[in-house]
Please model this.
Amino acid sequence: MEITKEQVIEILKGVNDPELGKSLVDLGMIKDVEISGNNVKVKVALTMAGCPLKSKIKSDVEEAISRIPGVGEIKVVLTTMTSEERARIFGQAPSEMEGMKGIKNVIAVASGKGGVGKSTISVNLAIALAKMGYKTGILDADMHGPDIPIMLGIKERPVGSRGMLLPLEKYNVKMISTGVLAGEGTPIVWRGPLVNKAIKEFLGRVQWGELDFLVVDLPPGTGDAPLTVASTIPIKGAIIVTTPQKVALSDVRRCIGLFLKNKIPIIGIVENMSYLKIPGQDEVMDIFGKGGGEKIAKAFKVPLLAQIPIDSEIRKGGDEGRPIATKEGTESAKIFLDLAQKVADSVLSVKENA
Ligand SMILES: Nc1ncnc2c1ncn2[C@@H]1O[C@H](COP(=O)(O)OP(=O)(O)OP(=O)(O)O)[C@@H](O)[C@H]1O
Ligand SMILES: [Mg+2]
Model:
């Protein structure tokens, strides 16, 4: 006997959205049913990109369809609802960037190159800002290598509420990682328009609440992803991270150019892995050379905000999920507090003068 669309819809009426407690069919989440022979393909539109329950929804749909006698291959494709569709479920359509309404200052942390310590600096800067009493969040916008949850020691996944995603919290810092988007079970091609759309969707759906500062750890480089993030979120200023070696000035220049093109001011340069302190000695070792950060700061007429030493405690803090900025009294924690003070002063003074 042939399988019919009606049969598939009928069986899916028994599958509820776990959060909303209504059937996927009634919620209008079943977009498309295709039958070829005994094979069934359905398209399910999630209420938001990065829905924490997407794997459950997918497996529930698969399970339901597998109960149809004689069914062959089952394919479930996940997509995201348009804002109009979402409005039908939740009432009034939230504006594009609804979840970001309560954020006063967004600070981007960027670098022309990978591996220079961007995530380390983002995390410690966010913790230091929180220690100073600012309501702070951190957005891990690097979906290829989302390191922030590890560095903060956050293992749980965020939960959804009425089509919005709630951030997790640690050390008084709220956190969301775009890694949620690329989560298991949904192969996504991270290129071009698709990534732009997904990032935009996602960013608007995070319910940050009131924040003084949101630190954004951007993906490395100057490609599609950092560009989309930089042009989607209203960024107050950017911090550029480099190392002291004879940095390829062109890398940093391109990175700075990306922000200036989007009319985002550069708060300053942070030079990471600047020197190595040898315990018990006054002298420091310039492992990666000297003067790179200063040279760039001068060339672009922006401040050199901090020079951060190579410190095994910094690496360990990240690996253990307890960043150095939480360890009061250490020299590196002081450096991050000082950096946070400079960043806050710079961003808040711009605002007062505006
Ligand atoms: N000042 C430092 N002292 C010692 N280790 C450091 C320091 N800064 C960063 N590291 C270590 O270097 C590695 C790379 O740092 P991190 O992940 O922060 O760089 P990134 O620029 O975010 O990299 P990616 O481009 O891959 O996202 C990590 O293992 C981190 O712990
Ligand atoms: Mg990183």
Remarks:
- The chain has two domains: 5-90, 98-353.
- Confidence is low (pLDDT under 50) at residues 184-189.
